[in-house]
Amino acid sequence: MTPNRRARHEEDVDPDIEQAYRRLMDRADDLETARLRAERLDVHALMSEPTVVTEEFMSQLATMPHSSPELRAFAERVFSGECRWSEIDFAARPVPPEVAELKDSPNFAWTWTAPTDNPPQSGRRQDPDDNDDDYEPPQSWLQ
Predict the structure, then answer these.
(1) How confident is the model over 11-26, as a mean pLDDT?
(2) Half-sphere exposure of 94 (CA within 13 A, CB side)
(3) How far apart are CA 110 and CA 140, in angstroms?
(4) Could you tell me if 32 and 48 are in contact, meaning their C-beta atoms sit under 8 angstroms apart?
(5) Cβ of 89: how many Cβ atoms within 10 Å?
(6) What is the mean predicted confidence (pLDDT) over 7-19?
């Protein structure tokens, strides 16, 4: 119950009715609070700030009915744990058209960049003390 509303308790009012009345008045207060917040919102400032593209944003974009098949296919790879949204630039082939649209739009901020370090080409870890001169590949069963 709000502090500015008089607390009154009628002895002859059914407690269930009084409880329903309190809930109704509390919801009316919540609605008034939401209205005041909406009135104070600076829409121009909100619209002038670009939306940062996040993993959550991309996940929601991929579930929209108008998203491209390429974006949906990459989303399946992300959901399966094969890759992350931040890798879409270099891991998706073809790159979904939404990526270029988001990057080119002044309404969105694309913060992901390609990785700076190149992963090793082979499956073996590169040890700095390891000398590959004496490495012999395993014998193939085809020989």
Answers:
(1) 90
(2) 7
(3) 47
(4) no
(5) 14
(6) 78
